[in-house]
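Sequence in, structure out.
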Amino acid sequence: MNLQLQIREVAESDKELLERHNRFIGEHLRRIFVQIYRIVGNVDDAQDLTQESFIKALRHLDQLKDEHKAAHWLSRIATNTAIDFLRRHSRVSFCEVDHTSHRHNDNPERILMRAEERNHLEAGLRLLTPRERAALILRDVEGLTATEVAKRLDCSQATVRSHISNARQKFRRFMRLI
């Protein structure tokens, strides 16, 4: 009888753990995917890296003491996973996340102009180092403060400002050439 009770308790605790993991993933999945996509610029890689980030996080979820810090903690894991990937592969290729994002009143000229702007932006992003790209995206696209970016990239605010400044200078030079 005692063994059956223990088995039932283990099964219930496993069910609670699974529900906690599913809730954690559901709350953060889209945001983490978009964050990683903006760093690596490729949907397939972003999907793989999102999965890898959640695997890393779920392995250590029991170490997270404050549930309110989960979003920041997970973002940091995701950012580092994406940067490590870019370092290993030293490449970036961009593609559209949503090919059907045309506006109702779009004409072919507007669609072409946006595609050209997007191509220029993507070409400019390829000029940046992975850390410059991550800092610029987290700061200018995600709207994080320099302090938040520094925490996510595990570096000082001065380093973040340097990465962002270098990235913006590279973009300006690139834009003058086109």
